[in-house]
Design goal:
Layout (H helix, E strand, L loop, with lengths): L13 H18 L4 H20 L3 H26 L24 H8 L1
Helix pairs in contact: 1-3, 2-3
Length: 117
């Protein structure tokens, strides 16, 4: 075994780095008004060069682009989730229980269970 330590271009805990990038994208989208289409496009445009860089042997640069793509994916998911929940990305939102959102035209679970019984 040689006396030199092994060097690596990757993080010791890569899933932690990816989760942190995803979470930072969610936070970024929560406090800005980033459209989901732009986030998805940017994620795609950063993933393609990351693959090219990885195939050329530039793993460190590819890893940085993958982290950026994960941040964009987190921002896109957060933007879509906020729009489906009924509002734009507004800071300070609360927790919504499943039964709190009810469309007047849709029967409730209790009404359906009474019809069955």
């Amino acid at each position: 075994m040689s006396g030199s330590p092994l060097t690596s271009n990757f993080s010791e805990h890569p899933l932690v780095a990816l989760a942190a990038a995803f979470a930072s994208g969610v936070l970024l989208a929560r406090y800005t008004s980033a459209p989901p289409a732009a986030c998805i496009t940017l994620a795609a445009f950063t993933t393609a060069p990351a693959l090219v860089l990885f195939l050329r042997g530039r793993e460190a640069a590819a890893a940085r682009l993958v982290l950026l793509a994960f941040a964009c994916a987190g921002a896109a998911l957060s933007s879509v989730g906020a729009k489906e929940a009924g509002g734009e990305n507004q800071g300070g939102g609360g927790v919504t229980r499943v039964g709190d959102q009810h469309d007047a035209g849709q029967p409730t679970v209790d009404a359906l269970l009474k019809q069955i019984a």
